[in-house]
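Predict structure. Chain length: 289.
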Amino acid sequence: MEQIKSQTIKPENDIVSLFKDEFTSTVIPVYIKSIDKELNFREVSVSEYKKFAKVAIDNANNPATIYRAMSGLIENVMLSEADFNSLTELDRIHILFNLSQTIVLDQNHAITCPNCKLEYKMQPDIAKINTEFDNIDMTDKVYTIEDANRIYIFTVNFPTIRRMIDTLDYFQKTNNGPSSDDENSINGNTLGIAMAYIHAYIKSITIERKNKGGNITADFTKMSADKIEEIIGVIPQSIFNSASETGLVAKINSDFIDKANSVFQKEKCPSCGKEFPGVIGSISDFLFS
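Prediction complete.
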């Protein structure tokens, strides 16, 4: 009588290892413009995303904590050797976009036209969005703003991740506590968070005195966040004036923040032809998927 051979059952640990090997081997290459180099990342796992989500929920009023957690998540899945914190904020957004492909982008999505209410499906053009990222100008911009007594010269660019972390850490630390409901508080206040974000884009300030002569220069790339904020704190508000197109806030928004946001695909209704901002392909897809 022929003997029946029993099937070998793999131990549980071996099965777990097989699954780990399967998904850690998936490589997501992203071209990083600031260093002119391609870096490789792996997919974010369920457990990693759950840990980040818990931090985000528990720290809804702590933007620096959320930013650190998100940056740590990206660094954890980076396979290439690189100083992650020296990459720029634009690089960070670009990486997040590519990591989100495996979560929400590689599929069709239901869209409702806000004009004619037509419901249709679309898929983001990932290659086009990546090209738009690559086309963003990352050279320093110099802005000159004058008042009656001084000429203010600002050098501005996308901040490094390290600078963004330091800036948000400072704002979170100084705005937590009994005064957190104050109108200038970063916590729960979109204006406070926006200004913290804006400040990180300033690389240096030079002041030319019209009457006394001589210049004063502060190189923010070599200074701590608290000293930077002391200096920014004495600059007249009119120079930053967010309500004016000539103010520094408007210039940074126009040349940097808006440029980064504009890479995400706009939608055009196939029925009425109305163009409207896309709802797929932004960083919120990654955060809230």
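Summary: Residues 161-175 form the longest helix (15 residues).
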